[in-house]
Amino acid sequence: MIGVGVIGYGYWGPNLVRNFYETPGCRVVAVSDLNAERLVRARARYPTIDPVPDYRDLIADPRVHLVAIATPVCTHYDLAMQALRMGKHILIEKPMTGDVEQAQRLVEEAARRKLMLAVDHTFVYTGAVRKMRDLVASGDLGDIYYYDSVRVNLGLFQHDVNVVWDLAVHDLSIMDHLLPARPVAVSAAGLGHIPGEPENIGYVTFHFDSAVMAHVHVNWLAPVKVRRTLIGGSKKMIVYDDLEPSEKVKVYDKGITVNSAPSDGHAPGNGQRYAMLVGYRSGDVWAPQIDGAEALAVETRHLIDCITNNKTPIADGEAGLRVVRLLEAATESMRNSGRIVELSRSGVSA
Amino acid sequence: MIGVGVIGYGYWGPNLVRNFYETPGCRVVAVSDLNAERLVRARARYPTIDPVPDYRDLIADPRVHLVAIATPVCTHYDLAMQALRMGKHILIEKPMTGDVEQAQRLVEEAARRKLMLAVDHTFVYTGAVRKMRDLVASGDLGDIYYYDSVRVNLGLFQHDVNVVWDLAVHDLSIMDHLLPARPVAVSAAGLGHIPGEPENIGYVTFHFDSAVMAHVHVNWLAPVKVRRTLIGGSKKMIVYDDLEPSEKVKVYDKGITVNSAPSDGHAPGNGQRYAMLVGYRSGDVWAPQIDGAEALAVETRHLIDCITNNKTPIADGEAGLRVVRLLEAATESMRNSGRIVELSRSGVSA
Amino acid sequence: MIGVGVIGYGYWGPNLVRNFYETPGCRVVAVSDLNAERLVRARARYPTIDPVPDYRDLIADPRVHLVAIATPVCTHYDLAMQALRMGKHILIEKPMTGDVEQAQRLVEEAARRKLMLAVDHTFVYTGAVRKMRDLVASGDLGDIYYYDSVRVNLGLFQHDVNVVWDLAVHDLSIMDHLLPARPVAVSAAGLGHIPGEPENIGYVTFHFDSAVMAHVHVNWLAPVKVRRTLIGGSKKMIVYDDLEPSEKVKVYDKGITVNSAPSDGHAPGNGQRYAMLVGYRSGDVWAPQIDGAEALAVETRHLIDCITNNKTPIADGEAGLRVVRLLEAATESMRNSGRIVELSRSGVSA
Amino acid sequence: MIGVGVIGYGYWGPNLVRNFYETPGCRVVAVSDLNAERLVRARARYPTIDPVPDYRDLIADPRVHLVAIATPVCTHYDLAMQALRMGKHILIEKPMTGDVEQAQRLVEEAARRKLMLAVDHTFVYTGAVRKMRDLVASGDLGDIYYYDSVRVNLGLFQHDVNVVWDLAVHDLSIMDHLLPARPVAVSAAGLGHIPGEPENIGYVTFHFDSAVMAHVHVNWLAPVKVRRTLIGGSKKMIVYDDLEPSEKVKVYDKGITVNSAPSDGHAPGNGQRYAMLVGYRSGDVWAPQIDGAEALAVETRHLIDCITNNKTPIADGEAGLRVVRLLEAATESMRNSGRIVELSRSGVSA
After folding, report:
1. Ramachandran bin of D80, using left for φ above 0, alpha for ψ from -120 to 50, beta for the remaining angles
2. CB B315 within 8 Å of CB B325
3. How far is CA B264 from each of CA A270, B268, B273, C259, C280, rounded to the nearest angstrom?
4. Which of A71, B238, C77, D30 is in Cβ range 3.0-4.6 Å of B231 for a Cys bridge?
5. Closest Cα of chain A to C46: distance in Å?
6. How large is the average pLDDT for residues D307-325?
7. Mutation test of the interface with chain D: which of C150, C151, C221, C273, choosing the one with the most D Cβ atoms within 10 A?
8. Sign of CA dihedral A213, A219, A222, A228
9. What angle do CA A58, B268, A217 make, to 5 degrees?
10. Mean pLDDT across A186-191
11. pLDDT category of residue B260 using cuts at 50, 70 and 90
């Protein structure tokens, strides 16, 4: 029986507690929060769980094997490092840390101690993303051409992070999970409309070594909510609309056919000649049935299984690090007029 | 009675002929095309119009006062310059020319000869864009924060121009018409998936001197057709969806309110304190009735009025030049890894 | 301080408890359910509320002033009558009773004892329906021409009531609240696809004395979920789509104009002549901001206010009776091949 | 080479002429219309076609083998009967005639003379309806449970026919083509909002001998345009939305499973026990690629093939008669307070 301790009982913490509470093979032992009122609420809801005002007591508790951290980003590193040093497995909210260096240290520490380091990239446990992962991995889409995502709404403006860290983190975690290739460079543009506040609009472009391209548009100041991703492949294409109550993932049997037959006679720039070589396919559309299970429930079961059977979680520290690296690079580019930021220049191997 | 000659009777030319044909105050005198079959078709439909195999005869025809040019982009400059030199008013298909220098020369020649030089930015004559123009100009939206457009589909791949010149030209003509400010720099990223062919995906960012930002996403290889523009203002925001059969323009009385009251006591990074200063407004949504008249009919009437009464057309040579300048800068940036291209660096004043 | 007792802690009961719990001016004293496990759950969540296995104890409890009944329909009458006889105010789930006679008796008993009898027509307390009520009442729509509702999905088949009692009850409660006129006759058609089970498809038509018409389509066996109501008026028309996350109510400034000018010269059947007399108006569309407050919270506050200040609730026993009368008539018509059932023939004045 | 003559060159006639004009194996010989201006227009467009002021000349023309009739409904019978008597094959606009008796006489006359009598039920030649026909005929949907159609808009009010004859005729032609069973009775309700004018709202229910039900809602006075049909089957269900630019037909692998295992122990009304016997299936959604060819082009080719090879057309006189019979019965029911009209009672075998 894995003992679980949760630090942070604000917005997301209660969801972690509820899901670990209902996950077989583990037991939520303690919850910690600086806010006394939240602990009262946790206690009322779960009389068997210890409310712990000082997180150090939770980390030191020998009954706790897994520490789940749902606190502000700036505290992730310290809390996680302390818990690792106490020999605890870790689950951290996304983004894993506030910078690449911290993320790397956590990855190294966990590796050295042979502890599980997981990041709560919840979206990769949704039925929709799991289905898309299967479609990409099976080769049904063919070569991936592009990944394009729009995630905008009239949002809760954050004050400590910009819109890329707040919203694009979701897209990056999904992209990291779905795409076989990794970006090698990032460029980004953004703008803040409230003086002194971080950027509330961001456009981030991801460059790859191969003929793949990714782009994410995030915006806290949009009149409508949009959560829509297009994935283009050489064989099929996907529209993933997370706001659709059903048919979230649609697979289009559409594309182009390029006739690569020798056309030696044509002069360069002979548009007419080329034109005959490109064709369009348009077939059926298919919306596969999506598993509607709560993503976090799938995740907590998976994590307990990883600890119990010594497996690497789907969204591990490396995934968390890769996403933080992209977020950091995007922000660096945004602050430098969209200058391309090579990921190797961050001093970290991709 | 203004005499009109149309060069090019391929895809768009017949629409020009039909609309000028039905416009009071003018008369379509001649149509020219290299393709004999097309001339036969024009003749069958309009027995009163002269089919002219050699465009030079059309340009030289003293009955022709306005030459409308609907041929491939690479021919625009030569045809227009010849016609201007024969003292003809000009309407050119968009994009006006293939490069900035040509566009400038046409603008100068027309100015010197006091001839009308119009570019067929058809969208600015639609009911939807005219309504949005009124909304922006009246100040109803407040300060403009951003302009974001997505124009994607499984498209007719072009061979002589990339997707930005083919699709983004529409957005740029609309943006040029709607926004009070002009971009000062452009950056762009794009990718081609067919070897030897131009880019079929493009993301173009437009930078301004003020706190405005514009972005256009164009793609010939998308599974679904999208024509959607978001315009954010400090007071109201617009969603313009050109595929909606009705309610193309929706005005959202939504936004943020920023309390600029002194908050001197707060420590840096005190998110809680800041958080109270940003509020959200969410009011009614309003879809104004849109004039459904054919845009090209509005345009041809407008142009005949301009010639008759010596007025400057809404989409004049300057507008055509500005759009070409943006297209050229976007392509330059795309070919240089997204490097920012300052518009003054193009040697042209914005 | 009004004491509230809730009978039934199954699907809806917990919502009643939660909302009364948070309503100022009242206190939830006791909850009753035949199922012991549910009482344990209620106790765990609300330690201050008494779990009462025998509802008679709840009804007899002098601390209870208002009894809320959320049990199967067939038990409503007995529970409510017993509670009324103990001098309690009543809130009953919809439909109020299983037949008209029971509903009438409850109305009479409550009137005699001067007790509040309310029916939980939750929809009439939603922001959307309240907004539509204002629009109808203010005369903005003009004369009401029709009310048309579709409420279909792949549903939980019920075994004790047909789809009309299960789904159309919502529409009838809304219609009863919105329309100034009352139906005078009902006809209905329906079909059951599972032998021995009640009808799972129903089409119900409501006839009025005036030029109004209402129709409700309900279906438990539809591939998609639809919740859409059209309300036609002589001046404006409404589309109410309850599945829209925003813009649930759209007001269309559309309609026909009938030129009633004397046209004495025309012969009967002269279509051409008539044709010139009918015109079409098409103006703006407007989606008013809708109060997003939880309907049940609005309702519980309203009911406590009614008891405290001796007012008649919006959805009172008369409203509950009128809805039951329509449901009964619809079922009678359905079982008689769609024969028109006059509402006066039910022996009840409308 | 089949010679074609078209009578009526108003709204639909030009479409007939254009499509026959482009159909191999036939030649449009003559067009007739009472309106001289329309004949001028036809002549200008098709110089090879004879404009014929008097339709009798067209009917008598020995070069004409097929007479297509696109005139007001009230003239269909006379024109068609005269043409049949001159030995011509016939295509008549829908609805075929204004009453059942006329339709029967035309069917009999055509049969006696061994001439083709076709009705222009254009929808049955669309890619969408042909695809649905295949799905129904192949048994993929299982047993058909219901057919439900909504066809509403702010429409052109007609003066000589009510909304059922004008709009429901489309649904009836589709239903007649798709459903294996034929209705045995009809009931309908409707209302007119303009004094002296026909009904502008109609609800028509079709009853069958088997457990099938059909319903059509038509309305000329709706704020939005809807063209949506639901078809429920025991295995799969269809949503057919004719306004969707793509994905017009969606097939839902959804439904209920009924466990018919003996449940001898249960008492009547024991909902719990029954409840366990009904299950819900929810699988993939599939939007098959639809042939986008113009329906009328498919139809004209089919008709020329039928004449040439002596085949019976898909939409023959019998189909036209069946649809007229349903329209007549619906109107009869509407004028009799929704009384069920048995189709055998119309004196016509179904």
Report:
1. alpha
2. no
3. 67, 10, 10, 67, 60
4. B238
5. 9
6. 97
7. C221
8. positive
9. 85
10. 96
11. low
**ipTM exceeding 0.95?**
no
Q: Encoding tokens for residue A208?
A: 């790859």
Collect all residues of chain B within an 8 Å Cβ-Cβ radius of residue C247: 285
pTM: 0.92
Write down all domains in chain B, each with its CATH number in brackets: 2-121+295-315 (3.40.50.720), 124-292+326-342 (3.30.360.10)
How many other C-beta atoms are found inside a 10 Å radius of the C-beta of residue B258? 16
Q: pLDDT tens across C292-307, in order? A: 999 999 999 999 999 9
* Separation between Cα atoms, residue B126 and residue B238, nearest integer Å: 16
DSSP state of C291: -
> Residue C154: what are its φ and ψ, rounded to 5°?
-85, 100
Q: Letter for the amino acid at A166?
A: D
* The three-state (H, E, C) secondary structure of chain D, written as one string: CEEEEEECCCCCHHHHHHHHHCCCCEEEEEEECCCHHHHHHHHHHCCCCEEECCHHHHHHCCCCCEEEECCCHHHHHHHHHHHHHCCCEEEEECCCCCCHHHHHHHHHHHHHHCCCEEEECHHHHCHHHHHHHHHHHCCCCCCEEEEEEEEEEECCCCCCCCHHHHHHHHHHHHHHHHCCCCCCEEEEEEECCCCCCCCCEEEEEEECCCCCEEEEEEECEEEEEEEEEEEEECCCEEEEECCCCCCCEEEEEEEEEECCCCCCCCCCCCHHHHHCCEEEEEEEEEECCCCCCCHHHHHHHHHHHHHHHCCCCCCEHHHHHHHHHHHHHHHHHHCCCCCCEECHHHCCCC
3-class state of residue C341 by DSSP: strand
CB contact under 8 A, D253 and A289: yes
| Chain D residues closer than 8 Å to B44 by CB | 47
Q: Contact, D109 vs D81, CB < 8 A?
A: yes
On the question of pLDDT at B347 being above 80, the answer is no
Task: Report the amino acid identity of residue D265.
Answer: G
Closest in A253, A282, A289 to D282, CB measured: A289
pLDDT of residue B266: 39
Residues A124-148 have pLDDT tens digits of 999 999 999 999 999 999 999 999 9
Q: Looking at beta carbons, which residues of chain B come within 8 Å of A280?
A: 154
Decide: B229 and B149 in contact? Cβ < 8 Å: yes
Q: Which residues of D touch C145 (CB under 8 A)?
A: 191, 193, 201, 221
pLDDT at D260: 61
Q: Which residues contact A226 (CB under 8 A, 6 or more apart)?
A: A150, A151, A152, A153, A243
Three-class SS of A174-208: HHHHHCCCCCCEEEEEEECCCCCCCCCEEEEEEEC
Chain A residues with CB inside 8 Å of B284's CB? none
**Which residues 246-275 on chain A approach chain C with CB closer than 8 angstroms?**
246
CA distance B19 to B296: 7
Question: What is the arithmetic mean of pLDDT over D31-50?
Answer: 93
pLDDT tens string D109-130: 999 999 999 999 999 999 999 9
Residues of C in contact with B284 (CB under 8 A): 286-289
Q: How many CB pairs under 8 A join B and C?
A: 26
Closest chain D residue by Cα to residue B46: D44
Interatomic CA distance for residues C89 and C111, integer angstroms: 11
pLDDT band of residue D337 (cuts 50, 70, 90) is confident
Touching partners of C (3+ C-beta pairs < 8 Å)? A, B, D
